[in-house]
Amino acid sequence: xxxxxxxxEAKDAVFALIKEKDxxxxxxxALKEVLDNNHVGMSEPLVDxxxxxxxxxxxxxxxxxxxxxxxxxxxxxxxMTKIEEGLHKIHALTGSNDAxxxxxxxxxxxxxxxxxxxxxxxLISPGSPAESAGLQVGDLILEFGSIRYRNFKAxxxxxxxxxxxxxxxxxxxIKRKSDIMILTLTPHPWVGEGLLGCNVIxxxxxxx
Length: 208
Hints:
The chain is α+β, with helices and mostly antiparallel strands. It has two domains: 1-96, Helix Hairpins (Orthogonal Bundle), CATH 1.10.287; 119-202, Pdz3 Domain (Roll), CATH 2.30.42.10. The chain contains five helices and seven strands, in the order H-H-E-H-E-H-E-E-H-E-E-E. It has helices at residues 2-37, 59-94, 110-113, 129-133, 155-163, and strands spanning 104-105, 119-124, 140-144, 147-148, 170-176, 179-185, 198-202. Strands 1, 2, 3, 4, 5, 6 and 7 form a seven-stranded antiparallel β-sheet that branches. A hairpin with a 2-residue loop joins strand 5 (170-176) and strand 6 (179-185). Helix 1 (2-37) runs antiparallel to helix 2 (59-94). The longest helix has 36 residues, at 2-37.
């Protein structure tokens, strides 16, 4: 009975965190629309070539929006860490891999037996969506959303999927040493370049 109560409390805590995460992602989408309406991203200069504030955008609004995006991105990263900790706690209480909805250890899964890596992560930028998702340098990517080694053609496939999945969670199946895990990666603008904040390199066929 005590374990059941503790398990329910752990689940309620994770559900509350996920709800908060969804709210942040919704706010980030709204902020991104503000930047889109000004036709800028997170890094374009706010002054013209002569050093004066640009007249084609609302400089104050853009500066404030960028600041809010940075703050919310940091909050999102912290929430993802708490969610991961909560999922691990649920897993410990239930002893079931199915309890983890964001990061799932599945070393004995039949599905993973047919999965083959096609990308290797060789760079993770601090504070990026990739870091928030839990990706690490050296991870081998088995699946990136709907992309697998059988239908992967070029890195532009990854870029295109990320662009089409802004603020939408993508399941990324990876192999880390002997462990198989599924991470949840949400592409979105951040202080750095791109929507992911990581660099991956294709594996040659012989490496698979």
